[in-house]
Amino acid sequence: SEVAVSWRPSAEFAGNVYRGEGIVPACPEDVWECIKPVAGGLRTKWDQNVKDFEVVEAVSDTVSVCRTTTPSAFMRIISPREFVDVVLMKQYEDGTMLSAATNVEHPRCPPQPNFVRGFNYPCGCFSIPLPGEPDRTLLLTFFQTDLGGYLPQTVVDSFFPASIAGFYSNLTKAVKALKA
């Protein structure tokens, strides 16, 4: 599947905000089933950038504090990371489903050894129904991630666009497997 990735300097930190946009050949509910940020969800199975996902505290039905860990990446140039975020999930009347997150500190989640603490600035995924096309979903993603550590910005800039394209490709495979 094709995905368009664009970026511009972030107003939040000294990196970029990345925008991904692509059509996923599945209904919005199946796309959401694959991407929703819940403990025991499918994301750890198909997203190569998510090793583990846990809910640290459920604040409400739609808001939680979560810890996500990532494996090493980019031929091990990028060490494993951990992110602690407050996450909001919302469904709109038109069927759009949103997952939005930003970094937060939590007393039950201090930095762990063997991980570099990264920080997600306001980011999210919008799973948007396409009118008249029930088996296709517009997926908009926004990533504003400070990977932390001592990575040169050039390494980060070369990693993110390919990583986002891989996210869409792997998601497409995951929704096809969900229907099989």
Automatic annotation (TrEMBL):
Record keywords, A-Z: Lipid transport, Lipid-binding, Transport
Top-level taxonomy: Eukaryota, Metazoa, Chordata, Craniata, Vertebrata
SUPFAM superfamilies the UniProt entry points to: Bet v1-like
Molecular function (Gene Ontology), one example: cholesterol binding
Function as written in the Swiss-Prot or TrEMBL entry: May be involved in the intracellular transport of sterols or other lipids. May bind cholesterol or other sterols.
Keyword ATP-binding: no
InterPro entries recorded: StARD5/6 (IPR043556), START-like_dom_sf (IPR023393), START_lipid-bd_dom (IPR002913)
Any one of the GO BP annotations: cholesterol import
START domain ranges (all copies): 1-180
Gene: Stard5
Protein name: STAR5 protein
